[in-house]
Amino acid sequence: MHNVEIRGTGSYIPDRVVHNDELSQIVDTSDQWIRERTGIRERRISTGENTSELAVKAARKALADAEVKAEEIGLIIVATVTPDKFFPSTACIVQRELSAGKAMSFDISAACSGFIYALDVAAGLIKTGACENALVIGAEVLSKIIDWKDRNTCVLFADGAGAAVLGRGEKGIRSSFTGADGTGGDFLGCDAVPVKNAFIPDHGGQTPSYLTMNGKEVFKFAVRIMVECIRQVLNKEGCSLEEVKYIVPHQANNRIVEATAKKLGIGKDKFYMNLDKCGNTSGASIPLALDEIAGRGLLSKGDQLILVGFGAGLTYGAQLIEWTK
Ligand SMILES: CC(C)(COP(=O)(O)OP(=O)(O)OC[C@H]1O[C@@H](n2cnc3c(N)ncnc32)[C@H](O)[C@@H]1OP(=O)(O)O)[C@@H](O)C(=O)NCCC(=O)NCCS
Questions:
Q1: Does 97 lie in the same domain as 218?
Q2: Considering the chain, what is the average pLDDT of its residues?
Q3: Which of 64, 162, 199, 263 could form a disulfide with 288 if both were Cys (CB 3.0 to 4.6 A apart)?
Q4: In terms of DSSP H, where are the helices of the chain?
Q5: Could you say which EC number(s) this protein's record lists (predicted)?
Q6: Atom 8 in ligand 1: which residue has the minimum CA distance?
C-alpha cells in the first residue's frame, strides 16, 4: 500500500465577470442582499466554453505544476454535475484532448462533494497499485442548468474548474471521511430527461430542466455535516484543530462557514474563502480554492490542511492532508 499526495494543482475560470448589480437587472435582487446573505460579490460565467474545455485548461496547469506528463497519467476522474454530454464522460473528452495515453477515465456525480469523492476514489486506486498518477478534476458550467429567472438560485452559482495531480508519496492524504444521505435528495437537484418514448402517449414536448433548491434545508444540513466531517478526519488521526493551518471548504455561503466555525469554537479565518469572487462552482469550488491558496504561497511543506464539502445527494466528505510540495 502506498500513501497518496497532491503533486500539483491548477484552475481555470471563464473571463466573463458577472457582478451582483448585473443580476439585479435580470431578477428582483440587489448587490446588498446577495453580499449580506451569501458573501458573493461577483462570479464567472461561461460565454460558450463547455465543462470539458474548462476542465482541460485547469488540468494542463495542474500537470505543469506537478511536472507530470499527460501520458504518465493512469487515471482521470472528473467530478461534475454539468457534463458536456450524458456520454461519453467528460473525463474521456479530457483524456482525448490531453492525449493522456490509455488512462482509465470516468466522471463522478456527487455534486459539490464531487472533488472530495474523486480524491478518495483516486487515492484508493493509487494505493492498490492500479495506477501511479491520477488527474482529479472538478469542473462545472452550472450556468447551463440555472433558471436565470429564479432569484433564489441564479445569484449563487457559477462556472469554473480546478484540478489536482495525485501520486504516490510518504505523506499526503492522512485521513478521509465520506458519506451520503439520499433521504435529502429533494432539497437540491436537477431533473434529467423525462421518460418519453414511442409507447407512451405524447405529453407535449420536453421542458428544459433547471436546478431547484430548498435553501434553508441545505443550509442546516451544511453546517451540521461540515462540523461532523471535520471532527471525523481529525479524530481518525488524533489531530487537533490547532495543528491545522487551513480548512478549504466548499464555497457556498459565508454564513454557512461562520456558523460552522462557531460550532467548532474556532475563528472564521482558518477557513480559506474565495466565494466573493467565484460564487458557488459546485464540484469545482474546492480545487479552485485549493489552487488559489497554493498559488499564493500560503502553504508550506508539512502544513496540515482539511478539505471539506457537502452537496446535493445529499453528499458530504472531508480529507485531512499533509501538504508535501
Ligand atoms: C439561499 C439562501 C442564501 C437564502 O438565504 P435565507 O436567509 O435562507 O433567505 P430566505 O430563503 O429565508 O429568504 C428570505 C427572503 O429573501 C428572498 N430572496 C431570496 N433570494 C433573494 C435574492 N436573490 N434577492 C433578494 N431577495 C431574495 C426570499 O424570497 C425571501 O423573501 P420572503 O421573506 O418575502 O419570502 C440560503 O438559504 C442559503 O445559502 N442556503 C444554502 C444554499 C446552498 O448553499 N446551496 C448549495 C449547496 S451545495
A1: no
A2: 96
A3: 162
A4: 20-23, 31-38, 51-66, 90-98, 114-128, 151-154, 215-237, 254-264, 275-278, 285-295
A5: 2.3.1.180
A6: 216
